Amino acid sequence: MKGGDMTAVDPLDPLDHVARLAAARAALDGVGIDALLVTELTHVRYLTGFTGSAATVLIHPAGVLFVTDGRYRTQAGAELGAAGVDVELAIVLTRQEEVDLVAAAAAGRSRVGLEAARVTWAQQRDMAARWFPEAELVATEGLIERLREVKAPAEVARIEAAAAIADAALAAVVAGLAQGPTEAEFALELDSTMRRLGAEALSFDTIVASGPNAALPHAHPGPRRIVDGDLVVIDFGAVVDGYHSDMTRTVCVGEPTPDQVRMYEVVGAAHDAGRRATRAGVAASEVDAAARAVIEDAGWGDAFPHGTGHGVGLEIHEAPHVGRVSAATLSSGSVITIEPGVYLPGLGGVRTEDTVLVDDGGCRALTSYPKSLTI
């Protein structure tokens, strides 16, 4: 966003959908298939730039078939054209037309891949019977997800723009906590401010959890009125051109108690330890271990019940998972969160979260709102 203009996102460099489709086609041989059916809409968007709610893509060595319905005739043509992708665009009126088109395009393909984590059992049975009766169906795992894990600079720019909107929105409204709004009222004000500043959507339902509710990691904003002495956990994010940001700040309304200060300092130290451990080539579980060790050493290991982070991009939760049992290794260009927390029933909770870009030398925070316990 321009320095004095907080109502719009600066122009962003285009995304390279042509290279993404080429990478997906090149990956087919590596998993032993000669065609891939893409039904997950997030993956359709990643590969083609299409943002509608109904589409199927068949990728095979000879080309790409893109099928959608009549609602998206104009939109699909415009978005695929803007993305510059070379696809066969088909508009259908019925499901059977879609089945027939995909079956014809896949004729002669002996092994067709399905996205195992995105296809239901009922869909698989239907595809085996009607879509690809002559082919062996192969469950592919993580094929497109692996391509998405490393972000291009244009993707990072979108996440950073979303983070800047979230930063500015919290700065604009946080002082209002001292006026005693309800959790729901403050969440609505924060959400509305992000939209006014240029967010196309919210990353997820904003969390505003105060007082005893702050001990619930994923509390829903409710009618509780925020009062002096409350810890308030605020977890939120904005979306720009499909890409999400994610940030949590915890503040105290009024003067914090010694116990609240200690919680905040321990979580802050855990967050810093997680960031220091984050760099390309490091196991994601090591980042979790570094953050978790600080909280365990403080005697609150059982009060940190979730993972230290997750990937962020076109989805708010995507690969890599950053937790105790994660098998992932961080790559340069991955975007993850680092979000340790401590939750003590009766006292409240503290979570500190940044979205960071991983590189060979460490990581860089894309969220930048100051970390301060008092407002």
Overview of the structural elements:
The chain is an alpha+beta fold. The protein is 34% helix and 22% strand. The chain has 10 helices and 19 strands. The chain has helices at residues 17-26, 41-48, 73-83, 95-105, 121-131, 143-149, 153-173, 183-196, 258-277, 284-297, and strands at residues 35-38, 56-60, 63-69, 88-92, 111-115, 136-140, 201-202, 207-210, 231-236, 238-240, 243-244, 247-252, 309-311, 318-322, 335-338, 341-344, 348-351, 354-359, 362-365. The strands form 6 sheets. The chain has a 6-stranded mixed β-sheet with strand order 4-3-2-1-5-6, with helices on both faces. Helix 7 crosses helix 8 and helix 9 (258-277) packs antiparallel against helix 10. The longest helix is centred in the middle third of the chain and has 21 residues, at 153-173.
Distance between the termini: 25 Å
Q: Structural class, judged by helices and strands?
A: alpha+beta
| Mean pLDDT score | 96
Question: How many runs of DSSP E, i.e. beta strands?
Answer: 19
Portion in beta strands: 15-25%
Radius of gyration (CA) equals 23 Å
Fraction in helix: 25-40%
- So how many helices? 10
Summarize the structure.
Helices cover 34% and strands 22% of the residues.
Keywords:
375 residues; 10 helices; three-stranded antiparallel beta sheet; six-stranded mixed beta sheet; single chain; elongated; alpha+beta
Q: What secondary-structure arrangement, pairings included, does this model have?
A:
Elements lengths: L16 H10 L8 E4 L2 H8 L7 E5 L2 E7 L3 H11 L4 E5 L2 H11 L5 E5 L5 H11 L4 E5 L2 H7 L3 H21 L9 H14 L4 E2 L4 E4 L20 E6 L1 E3 L2 E2 L2 E6 L5 H20 L6 H14 L11 E3 L6 E5 L12 E4 L2 E4 L3 E4 L2 E6 L2 E4 L10
Parallel strand pairs: 1-5, 3-4, 5-6
Antiparallel strand pairs: 1-2, 2-3, 7-10, 8-9, 9-12, 10-11, 13-14, 15-18, 16-17, 18-19
